[in-house]
Amino acid sequence: MSRPRIDYSLYYVTGRSLLPPAPTSYTGPPGDWYLAHLEQALAGGVTVVQVREKDVDGGEFYEVARRSKEVCDRYNVPLFVNDRLDIACLLKCHLHVGQSDLPARLARQLLGPDALLGVSVNTVDEMRLVLDEGVADYVGIGPCFGTQTKKNLNPIMGPRGVRAILEVLGDSEVKAVVIGGITPSTIPNVLAQTPAPLASGGYRHLDGLAVVSSISAAHDPFTAATELRALFLGRKMLPSWNLNASTAALDEQQLVRNAVDMLKLLREGAHKPLVHHITNQVVMNDTANLTLAFGASPIMSSSPDEAPHLSTLISCLLLNLGTITEQQIASQKIAGEAANRNQKPVVFDPVGVGATEYRKKSASDLLNACHVSIIKGNAGEVGALAGLSEVQARGVDSVGAGFKDPASVVRTLAAREKLVVAMSGKVDYVSDGRDVFAIENGSEWQESITGSGCMASACVPCFPASLSLSLCSTAVALFAGLRHESGSLSAAVAGLVAINVAAELAAERADVQGPNTFRAALIDECFRITPDDLARRAKVKKL
Ligand SMILES: Cc1ncc(COP(=O)(O)OP(=O)(O)O)c(N)n1
Ligand SMILES: Cc1ncsc1CCOP(=O)(O)O
Questions:
Q1: Which of 288, 374, 511, 528 has the maximum number of C-beta atoms within 10 A of its C-beta?
Q2: In angstroms, how far is CA 179 from the centroid of its own chain?
Q3: Measured from the CB, is residue 212 less than 6 Å from ligand 2?
């Protein structure tokens, strides 16, 4: 194959209709403003250009592509044309085709040996077909998000849909760019969520970002291109998961020490970390009290209007699907996006996610809208998110004996989602995608009250919340050098150990006569539990 190897990192698909008016400083012919704008984008760092003209006839398309190629040639940047094989052949440039255009295998027959061919894909089946045919050099995967730029848009895939396609692509030579709604504010989420785990180890990443409006509608295309490319090259992901950094593995003693030290910080009470709960009506009062009992401070708000402001104030966001409504999921998405923007950890409890299609879709929409740091669920919920049917759910409860190999379930889901998974049950399992820890604390009484899983989830953000104290307290030493997901792992283990040890202490009390007295005693014990109690009783094992 004599085709060139090109840099796909910033792939600009032109959109002449979106151009802003030429500034007064532009003195060239009005018809050439598009070319001047393109040139600035190239100078800013665009690495590939595709001329996409939807409403013009062949003559005009040819002329725009010809003149665009002259500009691209000056920057040594390859030019593709969209759809039009004839124009690609005439100009000796490259071609991009969609699923409803001339089939790629036919286009390949007429394109010369030096021309690159790109194909759009929206589903894993389309991706498989592209691989089987073996004629494409890259795929344009999208639409990732909603966009005003394209009519007849295929279903929106979200970063997780893009990841499913990258999983099929695996370590093939075919390159991949993502398209649809790619902007500086969506890029961190895309980069955090799309890498797909490979069977051979490691991850399959995107090779580039494809944009239309982020450059074509920009008044300053130079700066727009510079920023987009820097975001991609810097692989500036959300802090909760940086695949390229290496963390020293934490052992169980260290995790218990972290839990003890975090509880000390909460007990010192110099700060009351603020946790924003968007949660269900059944447990709201209990989880607010429990947060207070640990020394953190809850704010219970489902308002989409205050979520962005709240995200600047909080230490952590807790999202719970328990009594989800359309309005609440919209608030959760807004709050999650804002938390990501402000680099605040998000803990997600996908209550009853396996119960209905509606909950499944809500969870998937939410996970596409924001990157969460920790998912905490029961076996039924974790199984539903992992796409497994081994453990069934009845409503919000998990039924049956649990997974045969719970450790590999949580490890695989954590590695795929690139976050920490905490699965509660008689034994709790927590994984960061590499290591798995079992927590063998707890009391049977926990099963007798409603919302005990939600209460466990509410403990977790009390502990990452204490991470935000690190700049002004003894936690500096504790957390210096720890990456965020080590923080998430520590926090998930600490939160679950704390609630389970508090449950053991409550169960031992003589005044506990039944579920209701247990519930009250549990909140009391969350208030009374000491770092020493944790240190003495914690049963954490690395598997
Ligand atoms: C890089 C890249 N990816 C996807 C597309 C979409 O192509 P298509 O599905 O053919 O839709 P139209 O662009 O023709 O509307 C693309 N153009 N570029
Ligand atoms: C051409 C195309 N194909 C899928 S989405 C899309 C448009 C992307 O435009 P924008 O970058 O403005 O969202």
A1: 374
A2: 16
A3: yes
